[in-house]
Design goal:
The chain is an alpha+beta fold. It is built from 16 helices and 23 strands. The chain has three domains: about 260 residues, Orthogonal Bundle (GROEL, domain 1), CATH 1.10.560; about 100 residues, GROEL, domain 2, CATH 3.30.260; about 150 residues, GroEL (3-Layer(bba) Sandwich), CATH 3.50.7. The longest helix has 24 residues. The protein is elongated.
């Protein structure tokens, strides 16, 4: 690319680089983002469809989880990557609502594109959107309802709604999983200053194909995907006293190079006996604590295994650090970094420790702990694909219920809260006036994309549904009306228990608005991909996303 400066040509970008300016750049970015939103739009709600994603290596993922779809899709265009970022942020912050945030962002940008075509400057649109999101957050706060940790039924419903779109079985199976998730989170939640705090890492999720979805269970303790090291050790221990050890139960090699010269068989014998004595001492120190099972983060020598088995002490080796921490929180044990100074008070307790064969592999179940502060959800299903989807459903439910617990508020789902925000924004736009009014109205219309998608996915008439919802929300007692997807009509969703955490909705609004603002401020795309011979897609797009803007 060249520039004329006082009659001379100056080379700015390498040959083969592409540049798209002004309106064209905006149109391309908006089209790409809207295309990405349309890919995930069909997965929204209980009647949403699934996507089959096939990797370069032929690995197959079947899911309708927004974050998983965008992560596995391998998008190439920079604007599309921004949409993937929304999903990642949403997933990291609240663990649910990824599809909602991406669909909202896509529609906010499409509406902005229509305003740009009417010669409204992007800065004016951004200002309008910022006013709108502030008002939307206020409206969200106003229509929210409080939820306490004692209100288990409401938490169960929140979990049930969050995984409503996952094709993981019938209602009773989903209800069972929702109850498991709520129970697990309430078990590990900590109260600080009247507020609940939930560390999601303390609810471990283990999965194993085999059995059916109803076999999914909550373990009041930790499930370790390892086996007991020696066949002579007890495989089932009642009232187990647990020792957690972050030290190798073997003779450690010296850090520096060392050479031992043995000149006679007697010395060899003495050397071996000394080695054996050291190992016996290790086992004696463990036995002195009265431990019945040892979880070791490092290796255990074969001879040590033999001596432990002789004393009737079971052992598991090479346990992950994260699992050691969870075992500590579940059983009340302290992790010992050395064999010196170990006391009986360092031990943890579990009502049962047992090695069981699951799907042909041995796993150690540490169960029946007293008030464990770390628990495990053991996910089962018939095939690998289904078990992975059930795991994603559990992750979503875990995110939704923990958000409701921490925030203490929920709203009515099914597009109901979006319609209420839309109604308030239309009224607010008139008060603001000026060109920003058009941007606020565009934001209000974009909010309707959620009930639209729900109605579309359920095979309902979209226009009739939106008109009916608008009329209902104008009435005094119509604030909780939304799309009853299962019945295929507009109805009051509060009695049906269609609840969603307010925190998830707020995060979706903020993420979608911020990304829209980011994309609308771009007026120049410079793709300096020299060496490819300028072989980009149409309109200066990288090759992987060429022509995507036509998707709908």
């Amino acid at each position: 690319m060249t520039k004329q400066v006082s009659g001379e040509q100056v080379y700015v970008l390498p040959e083969g680089a592409q540049r798209v300016l002004g309106r064209d750049a905006m149109r391309i970015n908006i089209a790409i983002c809207y295309a990405v939103a349309n890919i995930v739009k069909t997965t929204l709600g209980p009647k949403g469809m699934d996507k089959m994603l096939v990797s370069d290596l032929g690995d197959i993922v079947i899911t309708n989880d927004g974050a998983t779809i965008l992560e596995e899709m391998n998008v190439d265009h920079p604007a599309a990557k921004l949409m993937v970022e929304i999903a990642k942020t949403q997933d990291k912050e609240v663990g649910d609502g990824t599809t909602t945030s991406v669909v909202l962002a896509g529609n906010l940008l499409r509406k902005a594109g229509e305003l740009i075509d009417q010669n409204i400057h992007p800065t004016v649109i951004i200002k309008g959107y910022e006013l709108a999101v502030k008002k939307a957050e206020e409206a969200l706060e106003r229509v929210s309802e409080p939820v306490k940790s004692t209100d288990v039924e409401t938490l169960n419903k929140i979990g049930l709604v969050s995984m409503g779109s996952k094709g993981i079985g019938n209602d009773s199976e989903k209800r069972k999983i929702a109850e498991i998730v709520s129970t697990a989170l309430l078990q590990v939640a900590e109260t600080k200053g009247g507020k609940h705090k939930v560390d999601l890492d303390l609810v471990k999720i283990e999965k194993k194909a085999g059995g059916e979805v109803m076999d999914t269970q909550l373990i009041q303790g930790v499930l370790i995907d390892k086996e007991i090291v020696h066949t002579g050790m007890p495989k089932s221990i009642k009232d187990a006293k647990i020792l957690l050890l972050d030290a190798a139960l073997e003779i450690e090699k010296t850090e520096t190079d060392a050479k031992i010269e043995i000149t006679s068989p007697d010395k060899m014998e003495a050397f071996l006996q000394q080695e054996e004595k050291m190992m016996r001492d290790m086992v004696d120190k463990i036995a002195a604590t009265k431990a019945t099972i040892v979880f070791c983060q490092k290796g255990i020598d074969d001879l040590v295994q033999h001596f432990l088995a002789k004393k009737g002490i079971s052992a598991v080796r090479r346990v992950k650090k994260s699992d050691m921490e969870k075992l500590g929180r579940a059983t009340g044990a302290s992790v010992s970094s050395s064999l010196e100074g170990m006391k009986e008070s360092d031990l943890g307790y579990a009502g049962s420790v047992e090695e069981r064969k699951v799907g042909g592999e041995a796993m150690v179940f540490v169960e029946k702990c007293k008030d464990p502060k770390s628990v495990t959800i053991f996910v089962r299903a018939g095939t690998d694909h289904v078990v992975s989807e059930v795991e994603r459903a559990v992750v979503d439910a875990r995110g939704a219920v923990s958000s409701a617990l921490e925030d203490g508020k929920y709203v009515i789902g099914g597009g109901s809260v979006e319609m209420e925000i839309s109604r308030e924004l239309h009224a607010y736009a008139v008060q603001i006036g000026g060109r920003e009014q058009l941007a606020i109205q565009a934001y209000a219309e974009a909010m309707e994309s959620i009930p639209r998608a729900l109605a579309e996915n359920a095979g309902m008439d979209v226009i009739d549904t939106i008109v009916s919802l608008r009329n209902k929300h104008k009435e005094k007692d119509g604030k909780t009306f939304g799309v009853d997807v299962l019945a295929g009509k507009v109805s009051d969703l509060k009695p049906l228990g269609i609840y969603e955490p307010m925190k998830v909705k707020r995060q979706a609004l903020v993420s979608a608005t911020e990304t829209s603002r980011l994309v609308l401020r771009i007026d120049d795309i410079i793709s300096s991909r020299g060496g490819r011979g300028g072989g980009g897609g149409p309109g200066g797009m990288p090759p992987g996303m060429g022509g995507m803007e036509g998707m709908d």
